[in-house]
């Protein structure tokens, strides 16, 4: 049986060497006579996995010591709720910059208990661009400014000529949802108060979420909350207040080791740039057969939504691409059309195969 090139937006394709290693270690992890997922999370074996994973992630992403790293459950959506509970005092404003579906979700999570100010909104423009920084209306005394580094559905990413565009919001801590672009290129973590990301796109499997927090923020009182919603308590409990998702954490660890062995985030930045450039070029040179409507400067390197000029061809495109071993290209129901998610683990050969399929399909149906 051969593996397809899988363009799923998340859970997403994993590196083959990671899957092979997990398979080889499935019945007997490192000679202990059991799978890692059958052992106590507090035993020496899993503690080794947990500590190595954190150390490796710190190396991979150059996370400074004054940042805590948590491995939590609940996905990115739970973190969207927890950030306001932990870091905004009752009545304090929080600022939200919305550039797509997930930014809207983030704002909705906090409206029950803080004032969430819509500082900038790309929705009137159909989420095809990032509102210019000088149009943002930030609040005085905001607890933080939140934005989504890469909008997975709309394919909109904060970019600048040098790579990632980290907005300047002065002294207010910048909080960012990096679910679909974490570790896809070098990033200056020190510019952020909080970064969070579900692992299921660029870091490995679903079921574990990475939260990176500047430690001084943990001294904030925030809102009244149960211990299980408290980041300080999670840190003190080494991300083990719940029985942690050990299998997912272990797979994340293998994926991070694989990324380090491949050359780290600098290498993935180059691969990701080449992959996305090839796809956008295929779309832009199709004479309108395919189109992507996102402003060029804000086009995502990770998720490339595109439309066929005639939506009556969508079913044939999906059927033929699947038959050609290119799977999960159907666009999100919010947008329709197609979407190719090309995270770190998508090989360049996969994007090359997709680009030539697209050209071939156009010739046959154009
Ligand atoms: C950018 C972004 N934020 C948040 C989420 C929600 O993540 P989760 O399902 O892990 O809660 C997603 C899921 O695709 C996402 O892409």
Automatic annotation (TrEMBL):
It catalyses: O-phospho-L-serine + 2-oxoglutarate = 3-phosphooxypyruvate + L-glutamate; 4-(phosphooxy)-L-threonine + 2-oxoglutarate = (R)-3-hydroxy-2-oxo-4-phosphooxybutanoate + L-glutamate. Its cofactor is pyridoxal 5'-phosphate. The modification N6-(pyridoxal phosphate)lysine is found at residue 201. Keywords: Amino-acid biosynthesis, Aminotransferase, Cytoplasm, Pyridoxal phosphate, Pyridoxine biosynthesis, Serine biosynthesis, Transferase. SUPFAM superfamilies: PLP-dependent transferases. Pathway: Cofactor biosynthesis; pyridoxine 5'-phosphate biosynthesis; pyridoxine 5'-phosphate from D-erythrose 4-phosphate: step 3/5; Amino-acid biosynthesis; L-serine biosynthesis; L-serine from 3-phospho-D-glycerate: step 2/3. It is found in: Cytoplasm. It is an enzyme of class 2 (transferase). Binds 1 pyridoxal phosphate per subunit. GO terms for molecular function: O-phospho-L-serine:2-oxoglutarate aminotransferase activity. Residues 5-354 form the Aminotransferase class V domain. Its EC number is 2.6.1.52. L-glutamate binds at residue 42. Its main location: cytoplasm. Pyridoxal 5'-phosphate binds at residues 76-77, 102, 152, 177, 200, 242-243. It comes from the Bacteria. NCBIfam families: PRK05355.1 (NF003764), serC_1 (TIGR01364). Catalyzes the reversible conversion of 3-phosphohydroxypyruvate to phosphoserine and of 3-hydroxy-2-oxo-4-phosphonooxybutanoate to phosphohydroxythreonine. Homodimer. This is Phosphoserine aminotransferase. It comes from Lysobacter cavernae.
